[in-house]
Amino acid sequence: MVRKALLLFLLTISSIVVCQNRYMDLREIVTDSAGIFNADQLSELREKLTVFELETTNQLVVVTI
Q: Which of 3, 12, 54, 63 is most buried, most CB within 10 Å of its CB?
């Protein structure tokens, strides 16, 4: 019984790991993979987030998928 439960657990975990999607690398403070923002909006958002980081030492990252 324990073996069956362990096997079921391992199969469940392995299927979760295999099914996960790979997302784009975070190379910038804003990664717009979904293409939601236009060039001006991206520039403005990057500028605001950079100022926020400099003023607060907190970093926010925006990712669209």
A: 63
Collapsing DSSP to helix, strand or coil, 21 comes out as coil
| DSSP H/E element including 48 | helix 39-56
pLDDT in tens, 35-61: 999 999 999 999 999 999 999 999 999
Domain extents in the chain: 24-65
> Across-strand partners of 64?
32
What phi and psi, each to the nearest 5 degrees, are found at residue 32?
-100, 75
Q: What count of other Cβ atoms lies within 10 Å of the Cβ of residue 30?
A: 20
Tens-digit pLDDT profile for residues 3-40? 888 888 877 776 665 555 666 677 789 999 889 999 99
